[in-house]
Amino acid sequence: MTPIRVILADDHPLVTEGVRAYLETFDQIDVVATVTNGPDALAAIERLKPDVTLMDLNMPGMNGLTATERALETSPQARIVILSMHDNPEYITTALRHGARGYLLKDIPTDEIVEAIEKVHAGEVYLCTGTEKMITGSSDDGEDGREPLTSREQMVLLRLAKGDSNKQVAGELNISVRTVETHRKNIKRKLGIATTAGLTRYVLESGLLGLER
């Protein structure tokens, strides 16, 4: 079996060293890098293309949520699990909306970290023990039953609804045209809307215009 390639992103050396030492006792897991800040996490994900990244919520340079969202723009296949001390349901749902595939509290038993890595690698969403019940009914769908858009997807949607081309959106948001196309595909899938006219109507009816800066 090919080992699951993992990146650890956390600015606390005791955390990364401890987790790495534990994970390296498992033949099915290969820790390919440890980084201590958001920008280095982005670079490592793009360069190494790990199967799973464990991302600290609070890091210098760029927090884990922003790093997760930006990583998914350049590496849509990335599977990221947020590490946090916060068990507030708002933190958990926000992490999932930014594209995280899991949420782990730092005080969980270490064997649960391995379970999370394996399940996220297999395509599942993993919430550690004690957090899933907190957000039952709110983690997967929005109020209308649709999968919620990330903040960057909302920004792309607003510009598409205004009639901007993919190239124009890419220029305004400083991302590639290919990334815009990926966002556009995900937006249509999440909302179940196939046409630009339908997207425009959704923006008008949902009140998203109020989010524009």
Automatic annotation (TrEMBL):
Q: InterPro entries attached here?
A: CheY-like_superfamily, NreC/VraR/RcsB-like_REC, Sig_transdc_resp-reg_C-effctor, Sig_transdc_resp-reg_receiver, Tscrpt_reg_LuxR_C, WalR-like
Question: Example GO biological process term?
Answer: phosphorelay signal transduction system
- Gene Ontology MF terms: DNA binding
Q: Any idea where the HTH luxR-type domain is?
A: 142-207
Point out the signal peptide segment: none
Q: Which Gene3D superfamilies did the record assign? A: 3.40.50.2300
Looking up SUPFAM superfamilies in the UniProt record yields: C-terminal effector domain of the bipartite response regulators (SSF46894), CheY-like (SSF52172)
Q: Which CDD domains match?
A: LuxR_C_like, REC_NarL-like
Q: Which UniProt keywords apply?
A: DNA-binding, Phosphoprotein, Transcription, Transcription regulation
Q: List-wise, which residues carry 4-aspartylphosphate?
A: 56
| Residue intervals of the Response regulatory domain | 5-121
What protein name applies here? Two-component system NarL family response regulator
